[in-house]
């Protein structure tokens, strides 16, 4: 190969050398396009979404990688036409470009893998999609961790290509332990959140699309990052919570194992309330309501004080949203029933006046 390059250089001069490098680049592009086309056709028979993702995310970073490899074959020609300083500069720039290209290629491949997997586990808004939410949560957290490691490694490799930085690194190696301790104390919360993210990915106290009660707020897990969780609240606000909150503090997860829930309605009546009639009306309202899943229903007197009865009504539905709407409808229906048929059974205050003049 070196003899062939030397022959071109001696016969055709710098123009021939440049033409040889351009020819290598064109040949590499052609070979890459053929390989990529074969891969696309291969994926097309198994994963229908993969070819378009490969074309969108991988084609051009992969093409640039092939071009860099082909151009590296032209380094012997450059040695004949440039001085040592020019060769050193070009090699340094080449190494940086190669590291950046591989980093981008890896990050794009991670995106392709994520999108292909997510196409089989899409979150359709249904609360009862436990297996999908489990896979998607693990995938999102692991993707961010791997991407973070790839980026940090890339930055470290690029910095190591500079001789001055390498020399400085060697000179402070003896004090690295002290620096590590200082950095550890300064970033302990960030590190704790990253470790919590790894725990969360596998233990999964929460998953994407889970219904939770956090800081007395009802919401749905919308996003999980390396350091925080975004909870979409019922009124469209977003609650930003550090990851380690879900490892260290108690919270309610309404969809931990399933989305089925039991809801309760508590209201107060007078002692004169006809409990049998009220219970019969409750059963009628439930039987005619489309949100009741027929798992649980009950009406009980749970307390009695000097002025009123406390009545608790239990009912079940398939998910948190339906339980909330069912509770509201049953509460309204029972109050309307008492207002129309037994208005004297509503809570009242009694005052007894005695005549002591006689």
Low-confidence stretches: 172-176
- For the biggest β-sheet, the strand order reads 4-3-2-1-5
Q: Give Rg in angstroms.
A: 35 Å
Written as H for each helix and E for each strand, in order along the chain, the element string is: HHHHHHHHHEEEEHEEHEEH
Decide which structural class fits the backbone.
Answer: alpha+beta
Cα(first) to Cα(last) distance is: 131 Å
Share in helix: 55-70%
Largest sheet: 5 strands, antiparallel
Question: Averaged pLDDT, please?
Answer: 77
Could you give the count of β-strands? 8
Work out the strand percent: 5-15%
> Shape from CA axes?
elongated
Count the DSSP helices. 12
Structural notes for this entry:
The structure is a single chain. The chain has 358 residues and is α+β, with helices and mostly antiparallel strands. A hairpin with a 3-residue loop joins strand 2 (217-224) and strand 3 (228-233). It has a five-stranded antiparallel sheet. The chain has twelve helices and eight strands. The protein has helices at 2-44, 50-57, 59-72, 75-81, 84-118, 130-160, 163-171, 176-186, 188-203, 245-248, 275-287, 320-341; strands spanning 211-214, 217-224, 228-233, 238-242, 252-253, 261-269, 297-304, 309-317. The protein is elongated and about 125 Å long.
Keywords:
358 residues; alpha+beta; 5-stranded antiparallel beta sheet; 3-stranded antiparallel beta sheet; elongated
Task: Lay out the secondary structure.
Elements: H1 2-44, H2 50-57, H3 59-72, H4 75-81, H5 84-118, H6 130-160, H7 163-171, H8 176-186, H9 188-203, E1 211-214, E2 217-224, E3 228-233, E4 238-242, H10 245-248, E5 252-253, E6 261-269, H11 275-287, E7 297-304, E8 309-317, H12 320-341
Antiparallel strand pairs: 1-2, 1-5, 2-3, 3-4, 6-8, 7-8
Helix pairs in contact: 1-2, 1-3, 1-4, 2-5, 3-5, 5-6, 6-9, 11-12
């Amino acid at each position: 190969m070196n003899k062939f390059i030397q022959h071109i250089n001696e016969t055709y001069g710098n123009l021939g050398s440049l033409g040889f490098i351009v020819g290598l680049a064109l040949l590499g592009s052609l070979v890459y396009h053929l390989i990529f086309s074969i891969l696309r056709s291969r994926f097309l028979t198994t994963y229908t979404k993969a070819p378009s993702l490969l074309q969108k995310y991988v084609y051009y970073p992969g093409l640039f990688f092939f071009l860099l490899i082909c151009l590296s074959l032209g380094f012997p020609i450059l040695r004949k036409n440039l001085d040592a300083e020019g060769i050193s500069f070009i090699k340094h720039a080449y190494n940086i470009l190669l590291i950046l290209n591989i980093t981008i290629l890896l990050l794009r491949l991670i995106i392709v893998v994520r999108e292909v997997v997510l196409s089989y586990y899409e979150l359709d808004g249904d609360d009862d999609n436990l297996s999908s939410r489990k896979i998607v949560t693990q995938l999102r957290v692991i993707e961010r961790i791997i991407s973070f490691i790839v980026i940090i490694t890339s930055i470290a490799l690029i910095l190591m290509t500079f001789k001055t930085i390498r020399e400085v690194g060697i000179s402070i190696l003896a004090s690295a332990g002290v620096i590590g301790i200082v950095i550890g104390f300064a970033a302990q919360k960030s590190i704790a959140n990253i470790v919590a993210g790894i725990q969360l990915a596998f233990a999964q106290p929460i998953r994407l699309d889970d219904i939770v009660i956090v800081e007395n707020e009802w919401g749905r897990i919308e996003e999980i990052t390396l350091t925080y969780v975004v909870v979409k609240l019922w009124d469209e606000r977003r609650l930003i919570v550090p990851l380690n909150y879900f490892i260290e503090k108690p919270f309610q997860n309404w969809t931990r194992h399933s989305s089925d829930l039991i809801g309760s309605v508590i209201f107060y009546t007078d002692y004169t309330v006809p409990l049998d009639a009220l219970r019969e009306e409750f059963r009628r309202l439930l039987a005619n309501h489309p949100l009741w899943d027929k798992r649980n229903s009950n009406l009980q007197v749970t307390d009695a004080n000097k002025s009123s009865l406390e009545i608790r009504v239990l009912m079940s539905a398939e998910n948190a949203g339906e339980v909330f709407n069912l509770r509201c409808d049953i509460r309204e229906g029972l109050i309307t029933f008492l207002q129309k048929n037994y208005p004297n059974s509503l809570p009242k205050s009694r005052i007894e006046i005695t005549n002591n003049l006689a």
